[in-house]
Amino acid sequence: MSAEPLTLVAGCALIGAGGHARVVAATLARLGLSPGAVFETDPARVGSLLGGVVVAADAGRTDLPLHIAIGENGARRRIANARPGAVWLSLIHPDARIAPDVEIGEGALIGMGALVQTGARIGRHAIVNTGAVVEHDNRIGDFAHVAPGAVLAGDVVVGEGALIGAGAVILPGIRIGAGAVVGAGAVVTRPVGDGETVTGAPARGVARS
Hints:
By secondary structure, the protein is mainly beta. Helix content is about 10%, strand content about 25%. It has an eight-stranded mixed sheet with strand order 6-9-12-15-18-21-23-24, with helices on one face. Strands 7-10-13-16-19-22 form a six-stranded parallel sheet, with no helix packed on it. Mean pLDDT is about 90; it is low at about 1-10.
C-alpha cells in the first residue's frame, strides 16, 4: 500500500492488551477512532479495559478487520500465520511524517513522531515505533520492530523479525539479518548476521553461553 493508512471501519479489533496495545489504542484515538473489540491470549488481562473496551479472550476470529497490537516480533508472526484469511489494518499516527512513495505492508504500525523517507519499504506487521527515523531506500522486513528513537541511515536493510533497539543507530548501507537483535543505543558499523545479537558503540556480537 502507499503511505496512506487503510480506511478503518466500525468493528475493527486489536489483538493484544499490554503496553504496546495502549500505544496502538492512543494512535486510534488520534485518528478519531476506538477499537470495536480487543482480544488477548493472556488470561490475566481478560476483563480489563483498553481504550474503553473490555478485553475478551482471543478465540481466533477473522470476521473483523484486525491489528496485532503486540510489540514482540515472534508473537505477531504466530498470530498472523494462524489467521490466513484475516484482513489486517495498517496504522499511521497522524503526527508521523511519511514520504508519499513509501510502501507500507498490511498490519504495520508507524508510530507518533516517526519519520519514513522516500523510497522506503515497510514490511507486513512491522513496527516503526515512536520517534524512529527510517531514511531513504530502507527495507524493513516483515514482523521487524524499529524501537523508539532508533535511526536507520540510507539504504539499510532490516531482515524479517529483526529488532532494532531503542536509540540504536545503523550506518548507511548496512544489512541487519533476519531475527537479529541490535541492542539499545548500539552504533552498527558492519553487517549483522541472521540471528546475531550485537551491542555497544561500535556494535559487537554478544557471545552465546
